[in-house]
Design brief:
CATH superfamily: Clavaminate synthase-like
CATH class: Alpha Beta
CATH topology: Double-stranded beta-helix
Number of strands: 15
Low-confidence stretches: none
Number of helices: 8
Strand content: 15-25%
Mean pLDDT: 97
Strand order of the largest sheet: 1-2-3-13-5-15-4
CATH architecture: 4-Layer Sandwich
Oligomer: single chain
Shape: globular
Helix content: 10-25%
Radius of gyration: 18 Å
């Protein structure tokens, strides 16, 4: 079957497409990988249905798109990890495959994924692409929503665009988790997640389009009073996540969804916490810190 890439919503022919006609587990050629990257440059989110991959196959596919991140964004101790450091464990399961208790520290930290964010914006070099594979899904709920930050930029008034262009925000998981009242961090964790600077406007190297770069991890803006900065970030987030800019993905088992963190924010939605939800994410790192990338 030939590779097919079609927009999920014909009225939004530049945001979210479904990709069929390939078997990721069997491997893809360099030419096919280039076609996929061209597509994500246009659509920002790609949905690959019915991809029965294991972790190794998912990782090999991901390496076509750049250098890989390691899974250093969670709080699982090394001895408690269920997956290798190549794979982000986006699940509610412990190392024995049992559902985490409601008050488990790892689960409470993971609730931060239900806030609008971009992956690894709390790292000096943030994420380029994320690839999330649905191995086990709950009976209902647990959708993932995506917000098109390019369209959000395009619809800002010229004055706000001009104000945003030079701004640099500081991102940290200490801040995003603090929004939920989770503040019981060790000294080691506080050092690990010290704030890092990120541009608030980015130019996409593949499409040339500008976008607003936001995340729940953004806690302040350099040179601004903190209350004013947080109010401005909140206003921008409310603007960017209006219904006309968003897509909600209802997961099917074995879906693999790939998104461009340079162009979208995303968040998980609620589900029955007593049901297993097992999602495995590989993450492609960006080329450099945002302050070193041309605007």
């Amino acid at each position: 079957m030939a590779l097919s890439i079609r927009p999920i919503n014909p009225k939004r022919d530049d945001f979210v497409a479904e990709v069929t006609g390939l078997d990721i587990a069997a491997g893809v050629s360099k030419a096919v990988a280039e076609e996929i990257e061209d597509a994500i440059n246009r659509y920002a989110v790609l949905v690959f249905p019915e991809q029965r991959v294991n972790d190794d196959q998912q990782y090999v596919f991901s390496t076509h798109f750049g250098p890989m991140e390691t899974a250093t964004g969670d709080i699982a101790a090394q001895g408690d990890r269920r997956l290798s450091m190549d794979i982000n464990d986006i699940s509610n399961l412990d190392k024995n495959g049992q559902v985490l208790q409601r008050d488990d520290r790892r689960r409470l930290f993971g609730l931060g994924n239900m806030l609008w964010h971009t992956d690894s914006s709390f790292k000096a070099t943030p994420a380029k692409f994320s690839l999330l594979s649905a191995r086990t899904i709950p009976g209902e709920g647990g959708n993932t929503e995506f917000a098109d930050m390019r369209a959000a930029w395009d619809d800002l008034d010229p004055k706000t665009q001009a104000d945003l262009m030079p701004l640099v925000a500081e991102h940290s998981q200490l801040y995003s988790r603090g929004l939920l009242g989770f503040d019981q961090f060790t000294d080691e964790e506080r050092a690990k997640w010290a704030p890092v600077p990120q541009r608030m406007v980015r130019r996409h190297p593949g499409s040339g389009r500008l976008s607003v770069f936001l995340a729940s991890h953004a806690g302040t803006i350099q040179g601004w009073p903190i209350p004013e900065a947080r109010m401005f970030i909140r206003d921008l987030t409310e603007h960017a996540t209006q219904r006309e800019y968003t897509y909600a993905h209802r997961w099917r088992q074995y879906d693999l969804v790939m998104w461009d963190n340079r162009a979208v924010m995303h968040r998980a939605r609620r589900y029955d916490h007593t049901q297993p939800r097992d999602m495995h994410r590989t993450t492609v790192a960006d080329c450099a810190p945002t302050l070193e990338q041309p605007l």
